[in-house]
Specification:
Layout lengths: L1 H18 L1 H13 L5 H19 L3 H16 L1
Amino acid sequence: MKKYLQIFFLVLFSTSSFAGSCPMLWNKLDTKIKDISDDNLKSKVQKLRDAGEKAHLDGDHANSEKLLNEALNLLAS
């Protein structure tokens, strides 16, 4: 029984720690968006960033990270 409780708490707390990475990603995007001169690229990145924040607020952290990383990849290319 003790082993199951340990696993339960590990899963519970690891999930909440991953949820905290979404705001770090969109803050990273916020600082990089200012330097984009291409309006089309800036619009795409801003839409992905906003969709990522909305997904985070709705509790869908996996989708949030996917969208935010997609926006960061657009900036890297």
